Amino acid sequence: MAAEGVDLAGEARLIDAMVAPGSRILDAGCGPGRVGAALAERGHRVVGVDSDPELIDAAKHDHPGPVWLVADLAELDLTALGEPEPFDAALMAGNVLTFVAPGTEHAVLARVAQHVRADGLVVVGFGTDRGYALADFDAGVTPACLRLEHRFATWDLRPWTEDADFAVTVLRRT
């Protein structure tokens, strides 16, 4: 995809523009580490978490530097995994919330938010046509101690419209 000119670092560029240099960033649902690695290359301190040990092994192999951990996002306790310091920002890119066990989406959002410092960011992107309704997502924002700040239709900040097939939501920890 990179050889074809596909933008593989758009999520990282957006997060990088939203946080201070050298920020501590949680890549929740990191998969093989593509976004977290791009953030680390930009000088951020990244911890990536995914429930799939094979994807974490791939991240460790392909992207040494960030911390890569295996954990279930619905039960996330990074202190128990040796990462007690709060994060300046967290992101869930790559449709993470559409891949978690159905019914755990609000728990995942809340557990991720609990690892972000007060006034920190949680940025979530997912396809609106993937079986998880945006209204259901929005219902979990306030209980997770978050408030909606912005919503876009893409990672490159195209305006949100009701017929958009993707949503990038910027939340602030209260």
Summarize the structure.
This protein is α/β, with parallel strands linked by helices and 174 residues long.
CATH topology annotation: Rossmann fold
Identify low-pLDDT runs: none
Distance between the termini: 38 Å
Largest sheet: 7 strands, mixed
**Principal-axes shape call:** globular
Structural class comes to: alpha/beta
Proper CATH architecture: 3-Layer(aba) Sandwich
CATH level 4 superfamily = Vaccinia Virus protein VP39
CATH class: Alpha Beta
As laid out across the biggest beta sheet, the strand order is 3-2-1-4-5-7-6
**SSE topology string:** HEHEHEEHHEHEE
Mean pLDDT: 95
**Which bin fits the share of residues in helices?**
25-40%
What number of structural domains do the residues give? 1
Describe the structure.
The structure is a single chain. Strands 3-2-1-4-5-7-6 form a 7-stranded mixed sheet. The chain contains 6 helices and 7 strands; from the N terminus they run αβαβαββααβαββ. α2 (34-41) links the parallel β1 and β2. It is 26% helix and 28% strand. With 174 residues, it is of the alpha/beta class.
